[in-house]
Design brief:
The chain is mainly alpha-helical. It has a domain of 100 residues. The protein contains 5 helices and no strands. Helix 2 packs antiparallel against helix 5 and helix 3 runs antiparallel to helix 4. The longest helix has 39 residues. The chain starts with a helix and ends with a helix. The relative contact order is 0.08. The mean pLDDT is 83.
């Protein structure tokens, strides 16, 4: 009897949450797709960061002394880069949301925000290279910087291909 009451309670909640119109149903479907898309994007980015870390590890060939000093610097850089990349994603989404009715004022605002984001990325890389110089040889630091740039270019190309102009 208790199970039946619980089942009826769950059914009542489900029915009350069930969209009452086709517009509500479409909105619920759109919201579900958006949530799925955001979750998939989050997982894809996390996977990319994990693969990137493996590539960096193989490319640098860190010794026993360097490794424990390097990884905290790398992790800090990646965390800060992720924040900047989140800002970039928000900028792209903002552009996509206003593309059809983009005013000159909104376009100017987006230009300024894009330029600020690019500046922040360059400042972060500059600080990163400075910190790396304390742990890595110049050759290793250069190799890592070139590797980071190559990965960035590949990601930029993928992003650019998806932005309608």
């Amino acid at each position: 009897m208790k199970k039946v009451l619980i089942a009826l309670g769950v059914l009542a909640v489900c029915l009350s949450a069930y969209p009452q119109s086709s517009e509500e149903a479409m909105q619920a479907y759109t919201n579900a797709l958006k949530a799925y898309d955001e979750a998939a994007q989050h997982l894809q980015r996390a996977n990319l960061r994990a693969v990137k870390k493996q590539i960096v590890e193989k490319a640098l060939e860190l010794n026993e002394d360097q490794s424990p000093k390097f990884w905290p610097i790398y992790d800090h850089y990646e965390a800060e880069a992720t924040k900047i990349n989140d800002t970039r994603i928000a900028l792209i989404q903002d552009y996509l949301n206003h593309r059809a009715d983009l005013s000159s004022e909104k376009a100017s605002e987006l230009i300024n925000r894009v330029m600020q984001t690019q500046l922040k990325r360059q400042e972060l890389k500059r600080a990163y290279v400075k910190d790396l110089g304390k742990v890595l040889t110049a050759k290793q630091a250069l190799r890592l910087l070139l590797l980071e740039n190559q990965i960035d270019v590949q990601i930029e190309a993928q992003i650019a291909a998806q932005i309608p102009l």
